[in-house]
Amino acid sequence: MVTARAALLGLALLSTRTNADECTNLIDHVDYKGHDVGSTAQPDAADCCGDCSDHDSCKVWVWTKYHGGTCWFKSQGTEVTAYHGAKSGALPTPTLSPRYSELADNVDYYGNDISTTKQKFAESCGEDCDNTDGCQLFVWTSHEGGTCWLKHSHSGQTDVYGVKSAYRVPTTTVTPAPTTMVNPAPTTRAGRLKHSHSKRAKPT
């Protein structure tokens, strides 16, 4: 009975993790310099995907043979370097809802905050904004592994390096053009015109 319960618990935990086949293909002999946020021991590089998904800040990882196999978690993979024997991979980036504008890099909106949420990807902030009353836009920063700043106004736009932002696109209602009623022309009945009186003979 204990073994069965343990197996069910393991399946439940696995269902909440990102599967290895959902991550991008592993790249051989590639390392990402810096931006380390943690590590786990895994003998197989493919198992780094689930561990990275469980970590609050991990977006990419590098696996090496260190101590029998180690996953090195990183918050970003911007600086690529060669490392013989390493394998690297990345979590799939979510898709931003079409209700929002395209993500704008390095654009912040000062003030007008409603609340904050934790998301490692900026694209995930859209759903949080949808679930927050009055939210019109969001600004994502790397603060504490990824923070969505949900805002109610577009005012106070400023440039801040590293942030990402998007606003809700106003929905437009298409009003159908009015229809014009065309009255048909009156119809005329064909027939002979009958006189109301007949010709009388002249008196002699």
From TrEMBL:
Top-rank taxon: Eukaryota
Low complexity biased stretches: 174-188
Protein name, per record: Apple domain-containing protein
InterPro entries assigned: Apple, Pan_app
Chain spans, region Disordered: 174-204
Pfam families found in the cross-reference section: PAN_4 (PF14295)
Basic residues bias locations: 191-204
PANTHER family registered for this protein in UniProt: COAGULATION FACTOR XI (PTHR33946:SF4), PTHR33946
Protein's GO biological process: proteolysis
Ranges of residues in domain Apple: 30-74, 107-151
Keyword annotations: Disulfide bond, Repeat, Signal
Species the sequence originates in: Aphanomyces astaci (Crayfish plague agent)
Signal peptide location: 1-20
Gene Ontology CC entries for this record: extracellular region
